[in-house]
Amino acid sequence: MQADLDKEVQRLYRLLHPLGWSRGDCELIAPTTLEINDLKHQQNAVILAHSYQTPDIMYGVGDYVGDSYGLSVRATEHPAQKIIFCSVYFMGETAKLLNPGKEVLVPRVAGCSLADSISAAQVRALRREHPEAGVVCYVNTYAEVKAESDACCTSANAVEVVEAMPQDEILFIPDRLMGLNLDKISSKTILTWDGTCIVHEGFNVDTVHDIRRRFPGVKILAHPECTPGLVAEVDYAGGTSGMLNYVRNSDARTFMLVTECGLSDRFKAEFRDKEIVGTCILCPYMKEIRLDDVLKALKNPAPEQYIEIPPDIARRAQASLDRMFELEREGKAILARRGTGALPWTAARQN
Predict the structure, then answer these.
(1) pLDDT tens per residue, range 233-270
(2) In the CATH scheme, what architecture does the domain 200-282 have?
(3) Cα of 230 vs its chain's centroid, Å
(4) Tell me: the pLDDT tens digits for 216-227?
């Protein structure tokens, strides 16, 4: 047992030392990570860790690290029959929608400022106010909201989905700032809701200007949940996968990520030859989740940790996700015919 514990400390130290963790820090969590990893193998479980989780979860127990939708898709390809999704609650719902035959649990019932900003009843009211408009919901919503929408989208395919919608007027919910960014590059009229991500709305363009002065040649990446003024000033705007690809393929050495702190930790761990500078903002919802919560989900889960979606809502929410794929393909073809190709949120500056 001690030999196994020593190996676990060594493994953790190798992964977490680049993020400033000491060997003593790793010794403190090693008994818990070792137990979690043993239990997940015994139970044929897979642990998904969102990029905004703390490093001990991402690298201590996570089998896959990524964004919410990509992780849910990855789970469909994994033989495990139990999914532990270290994320906020709506992400667990998305995993359940894509993996209806599997058991899905969240370590903690954590909310989200964006998802919590709109309900199914409010979507129905919007439809009554704008009967001619199509409704596109961002994936960062609860299943009941997806069920009331014509189509879902991610930050990676929002432009294609919206451009392929048959209506000229689109209700884009719930992220107001992403909707405003979309309105700048879309041929459609975009109507927005007043939801925001408390992390991304907290950044301002002065921070970007300050970092450029302090670090000449820095490449600045932002999420399209930020303000349009800020998005217009960065080198690249997009979701997690787009940011990863940008950094991976860039010759630049210094980067600032205008997003949640967990993603900065991930980039420091996975791109050790790059320098990540500037500030970040913590998501209080994502940071509610602790290793002990993950252990509880495996050892003695509470009823509220299980993801259950009423069949009618699940069916209609799944239809919204299915429509997303259809529209994404159509949207790519539309943009190709216009000669624009896939439009980024803001044109990336070339190295």
Answers:
(1) 999 999 888 899 999 999 999 999 999 999 999 999 99
(2) 3-Layer(aba) Sandwich (3.40)
(3) 20
(4) 999 999 999 999
pLDDT of 347 higher than 70: no
Query: Which superfamily does 115-197+309-337 belong to?
Result: NadA-like (3.40.50.10800)
- For the chain, what are the domain ranges? 2-111+287-305, 115-197+309-337, 200-282
